[in-house]
Write a structure and sequence with these properties.
By secondary structure, the chain is an all-alpha fold. The protein has six helices and no strands. The protein is 81% helix and 0% strand.
């Protein structure tokens, strides 16, 4: 289920929305702004909101299955991470209603994914799910960083 959620929110839904808006609906936006719009909505918004729900209601999944921690000691911290993910995710979701929030949500979400991905790199005993999280975090970071460079600097 975790891999499916990553595949849907990282590839299938955002790429589908980008292609549909660009080709079917003839969006006046270029491809880079569409990447920002739909990756912020799906990868920052939906993915982090779903992760936050799961971490808030079932912190053991993240602690045990992704991070490989079997004790109950970190559960409060994982649950509070879930609250942060809910908050960032909600901001990403709300960008669909207010496009002025796309850049701030891309900054917050991109920084979160970048830092989390880098943190996973330095953990030597990563399991498959944590490695999947690491790779997807870094890909999303690079996509959002590219979007932000174009949106802010160019």
């Amino acid at each position: 289920m975790y891999i499916l959620m990553i595949a849907l929110t990282m590839f299938i839904f955002p790429i589908g929305c980008i292609l549909a808006e660009f080709f079917l609906f003839k969006s006046p936006l270029g491809i880079i702004p569409l990447i920002g719009k739909w990756y912020v909505f799906w990868a920052v918004g939906i993915r982090l909101f779903i992760a936050g729900l799961r971490q808030s209601t079932n912190p053991k999944f993240t602690a045990q299955q992704i991070l490989g921690i079997s004790s109950d000691e970190p559960l409060q911290i994982v649950q509070e991470l879930g609250f942060a993910n809910l908050s960032i995710g909600l901001l990403g979701i709300l960008t669909i209603l207010n496009s002025d929030w796309i850049v701030p949500a891309a900054i917050v979400g991109g920084l979160f994914y970048g830092l989390a991905g880098i943190r996973h790199i330095f953990k030597a005993d990563r399991n498959f799910l944590e490695s999947t999280a690491m790779v997807s975090d870094l890909i999303i970071f690079v996509l959002l960083a590219g979007f932000l460079i174009q949106a802010i600097i160019l």
